[in-house]
Amino acid sequence: QVQLVESGGGLVQAGGSLRLSCVASGRTYSRIVTGWFRRAPGKEREFVAAIRENGVNAYYTDSVKERFTISKDNTSRTVHLDMNNLRPEDAAVYYCAAALSHVRPSDQRLYNFWGRGTQVTVSS
After folding, report:
1. What is the b/e burial string over 67-101, where b = at least 16 CB atoms within 10 angstroms of the residue's CB?
2. Exposure pattern of 14-38 as b/e (b: 16+ CB <10 Å)?
3. Mean pLDDT on 91-105
4. What confidence tens digit (pLDDT) does each residue in 40-68 have?
5. Exposed, middle or buried by CB within 10 Å (0-12, 13-18, 19+), for 45?
6. Residue from 92, 91, 88 nearest 14 by CA
7. Average pLDDT rounded to a whole number, residues 77-85
8. Bridge partners of residue 68, in order along the sequence
9. Which residues neighbour 56 within 8 Å (Cβ) at sequence distance 6 or greater?
């Protein structure tokens, strides 16, 4: 089992920045994908970004490309999501998740472990 704990959410003005962090504990896996998903009020949960265990291969949904950056620190088992130029439509609960499959990093059905989420609010 892997436990995931998110932090870093908060209230920010449009155009501002936030850094989300996801710390993993428990069992370690040699091959694991860590992803960020979000759910806005009244909407389905959607993929935001993901990164492979090598910390190199990263994936983003189109709406956050050039604004968000995902990174991984294997020493501390932490994955960060740096969010810049935030927009009101980025407001959501952000969830960290881990998948043992590399097949489709954007497919939330393939994720085995989930955190409880952290709230991001963006004021216009």
Report:
1. ebbbebeeeebbbbbbbeebeeebbbbbbbbbbee
2. eeeebebbbbbeeeeeeebbbbbbb
3. 93
4. 999 999 999 999 998 899 999 999 999 99
5. middle
6. 88
7. 97
8. 83
9. none
